[in-house]
Amino acid sequence: MSPDQEPTPAADRSRPPASAGRPTRAHARRNRENLVAAARAAFTAADDTVPLEGIARDAGVGIGTLYRHFPTREALVEAVYAAELDDVTDSAPALLEELPPEQALRAWMERYAAFVATKRAMLNTLHSGWASGRLATPATRERITAAIGALLAEGVRAGSLRADVAADDVTAMLLGVFLSTAADDEPERTGRLLDLVVDALRPPASS
């Protein structure tokens, strides 16, 4: 029986034994999602030394439940990183459905900036896990560049973004922005630099 569950009352002993005292798959999935969400918030706000007990508490579960889903800190960090990477890459098509391509690209850059901030908070754990082989090395740059390529392609079709720009060059520009502002506590400066990147991607005005 899970330490987070109450014993089955005597009046309920007529239920099938297979279901007694066992969390449902949906309940376990919710617990895992809540743990990842709490860890994302904690790692973004602090650093990767945040106590796991605090993450469990914020997720509304016991520490035993956290360790059942994530036996090590590395496993939790890996799950948070994967969820963040999925979110940032998957957001590109959704933004293109809502906004003109150049606006979708600018909004996506903000989402990418948030991803980089979360990654920075977990960097030591990620690097040690990747170096030791305990964590799989994700194809982060390739996936980010693919998302940028999709945004650029829509902008080219709409005539609002340049056709002579490689997606990987845009990735390099964005990494330069984030690297140069890593020590700053000035989100406004990051925003100004991202605006300049978007301006550089617009077609030159006709003479």
- The arrangement of helices and strands along the chain is HHHHHHHHH
Strand content: under 5%
The total beta strand count reads: 0
Portion of residues in helices?
55-70%
Report how far apart the termini are: 75 Å
Let me know the largest β-sheet: none
Specify the structural class. mainly alpha
- Overall mean pLDDT stands at 84
Rg result = 22 Å
**Regions with little confidence, pLDDT below 50 for 5+ residues:** 1-21
Number of helices: 9
Q: Identify the overall geometry.
A: elongated
Structural commentary:
The chain is mainly α and 207 residues long. Helix 5 crosses helix 9. The longest helix has 26 residues. The termini are far apart.
